[in-house]
Design brief:
This protein is of the alpha/beta class and 393 residues long. It has a domain of 234 residues: P-loop containing nucleotide triphosphate hydrolases (Rossmann fold, 3-Layer(aba) Sandwich), CATH 3.40.50.300. The chain is 46% helix and 7% strand. It is built from 19 helices and five strands. It has a five-stranded parallel β-sheet with strand order 2-3-1-4-5, sandwiched between helices. The radius of gyration is 25 Å and the shape is globular. The protein binds 2-acetamido-2-deoxy-beta-D-glucopyranose (3 copies). This is Sulfotransferase. Belongs to the sulfotransferase 1 family. Gal/GlcNAc/GalNAc subfamily. It is a single-pass type II membrane protein.
């Protein structure tokens, strides 16, 4: 029998290499065991809201940040393509699209726009500063504050592939969506190791939402039909069935995130009320930025000052339609403009949401019209805090 002689030095090296490899694997494994929540360095922010709640405004606050790639309502394409389905049925397709966009995989739009397309085929593309500046479009710098109008004129004809190319160059991907009605639908994204998802839940007084919805009845009719599952029939929501569903979903999302939240929601959920934002923009914006790991640049600070004081180039017409100062009175407009009968009806339908989100009900027309009576309770009142709570798994 032939004996293979192996020089002892080789054996020692072999054993050393193997031990090293095992130690490496062990370190990786134990690291994996003790830090199951190690997330990618990119940050993914979902602004979760509903129609007419100030989410375009909040979207702009992120979109203009030089580190942010922002898309407004990318799942609009899902709803438009499959309008005969219900919101519930479309949840999964919407979630899949949102996940792909977070990962900068824009091939997901092939399903909804099968033709050869340009940048401008993407819904609301021009409100995204990232799609108006390099590398998506050469007309603006990444640090510029861009306007929708100027961007539309200069950047629309770039190929669609620029969306993906641009996305990949950013540290923060932010998406605004009004098409989720259940927080649990998002759990798979929160636990997905390839995502680092944080949710900003933006809410607004339902009575103010109704007032604002009344000003855009036609524009909302198709989406209403999808919410109510009418097989493609447009709905005007005169009976507030859609409002009821919106209020129900805000309660569900808020309670799910705060009453007994799963461990993976820790530090990943922030509720913001539109009323607080318009009353004290800088403090609310700072909190959202901190939550999102973004810093407030001097340029952004100046811009925010301008838009919240109705100053600077563009003034009221550009970007926001309303400045924040106007928004304070706009957010009270329902108290003068809607009848008490109507308010009573909305309060019946949305009582839970009004209470839980920190607004006061009115008991009479006198209370409704008396603007010295503040119906927005102080923010963060008896708010849930992780430090005093040991989450269950
Ligand atoms: C896309 O842009 C090209 C020019 O780059 C133009 O010829 C074409 O008409 C555009 N297509 C659409 C759908 O706008
Ligand atoms: C939905 O509408 C389409 C055409 O408008 C019709 O063919 C289909 O049968 C309808 N489906 C249901 C479930 O009513
Ligand atoms: C804000 O407004 C001032 C005064 O009009 C202007 O000089 C400045 O450029 C504006 N800042 C931004 C970031 O738009």
């Amino acid at each position: 029998m032939a004996r293979i002689r192996i020089p002892s030095a080789i054996v020692i090296i072999f054993v050393a290499v193997q031990t090293g490899f095992l130690l490496f694997m062990y370190a990786r494994y134990s690291n994996f065991m003790t830090q199951p929540e190690e997330k990618p360095s990119q940050v993914h922010i979902l602004i979760l809201s509903s129609w007419r709640s100030g989410s375009s405004f909040v979207g702009q606050l992120f979109s203009q940040h030089p580190s942010v790639f922002y898309l407004m309502e990318p799942a609009w394409h899902v709803w438009v393509t499959m309008y005969q389905n219900s919101a519930k049925v479309l949840h999964m397709a919407v979630r899949d699209l949102v996940r792909s966009v977070f990962l900068c995989d824009m091939s997901v739009f092939d399903a909804y726009m099968p033709w050869k397309r340009n940048l401008s085929d993407l819904f609301q593309w021009a409100v995204s500063r990232a799609l108006c500046s390099a590398p998506a479009c050469d007309s603006f710098q990444r640090t510029d504050i861009t306007s929708e109008m100027a961007c539309k004129t200069l950047c629309g004809r770039y190929p669609f592939s620029k969306v993906e190319e641009a996305c990949k160059t950013y540290s923060h991907i932010v998406i605004k969506e009004v098409r989720f009605f259940d927080l649990k639908v998002l759990y798979p994204l929160l636990t997905d190791p390839s995502l680092n998802l944080k949710i900003i839940h933006l809410v607004r007084d339902p009575r103010a939402v109704v007032k604002s919805r009344e000003q855009s009845v036609k524009a909302l009719a198709r989406d209403n039909g999808i919410v109510l599952s009418t097989n493609g029939t447009k709905v005007e929501d005169s009976k507030y069935k859609v409002m009821q569903e919106i209020c129900r979903s805000h309660v569900q999302i808020y309670e799910t995130a705060t009453l007994k939240p799963p461990h993976f929601l820790k530090d990943r959920y922030l509720m913001i009320r539109f009323e607080d934002l318009v009353r004290d923009p800088l403090s609310e914006i700072s909190e959202m930025y901190k939550f999102a790991d973004l810093s407030l640049t001097p340029m952004l600070k100046s811009w925010i000052y301008n838009i919240t004081h109705g100053e600077g180039p563009g003034k009221k017409k550009e970007a926001f339609k309303i400045t924040s100062r106007d928004a304070v009175s706009v957010s009270q407009a329902w108290r003068n403009d809607l009848s008490f009968q109507k308010i009573k009806k909305i309060q019946e339908i949305c009582r839970g949401a009004i209470n839980i989100l920190g607004y006061q009900l009115v008991d009479s027309e006198k209370e409704q019209r008396d603007l010295s009576l503040d119906l927005v309770l102080p923010r963060r009142q008896n708010q849930f805090s992780w430090s005093s709570f040991n989450p269950e798994h």
